[in-house]
Amino acid sequence: MASFLSKSFAHKGYAAFRPTYAAELYRTVLAYHEGFSDSRRSLSVDLGTGHGLVTRELSPHFHRVIGTDPSAGMVSQARELSPVTSYPNVEFHQFAAESLPFLKGPQSTYSPGGGSSRTNCAPSSRRSPSGRRPSGSSTSRPRPVSSGGRAKMTLGAMEEYTRTWSSFHQWQQRFPSAHRRGPYGDGEGDVIDRMMDAIREAESAFQVSEWKEKEVDVEWGSALILARRREE
């Protein structure tokens, strides 16, 4: 996303508050590619890796895992969160999805979903970054996953997490004079403040002075589009 490329985007905050994906999502993706020979599990490429969450989760299943992102800030966070002592087969590079000079030969591409445009690859077939299917490939219909992401967090943490969204960053650029309320701001409130006001108004349990300490379950669904080359 374009917001992630901005130097003013809070990459560290995004990495700190970004929830994890449900295990079901990874099981669905890996099950689709079951039956590959050991050599076909040699490489996975995570396009739009962000802070490397999916790259790290896939690392036990492949000999080598590469995460790429056009944002230098995201790549920096991914490397910081993926020490070589814990992830010796993981590496990160700053590249756009359309430019992968380190890859040679046919690739298998599949998408675990999520809030960004993320694609993962293993050597067997190829789906272009533009979304067009190459000749000889087969694609499944969009497959809903009951829980693409899930996290238990306080309302205060949820508020800070929404402030890492690229959509909010774009809103800030459009309305630069609208500042958040204290203690971290000096304004009359921004769109996130108004959203939290509406949430508190709708739920009586949140209408207390310590509302930021109230714990909530945050969950969102995902859909996968999986593709691989037809066996000759």
TrEMBL record:
Residues 45-105 form the Methyltransferase domain. The keyword Disulfide bond does not apply. GO terms for biological process: methylation. Keywords: Methyltransferase, S-adenosyl-L-methionine, Transferase. Residues 106-122 have a biased composition (Polar residues). The keyword Mitochondrion does not apply. Pathway: Secondary metabolite biosynthesis. Gene3D superfamilies: Vaccinia Virus protein VP39. Residues 106-151 are annotated as: Disordered. Pfam families: Methyltransf_25. Residues 123-150 have a biased composition (Low complexity). GO terms for molecular function: methyltransferase activity. PANTHER family: METHYLTRANSF_11 DOMAIN-CONTAINING PROTEIN, METHYLTRANSFERASE TYPE 11 DOMAIN-CONTAINING PROTEIN. This is Methyltransferase domain-containing protein. It comes from Petromyces alliaceus (Aspergillus alliaceus).
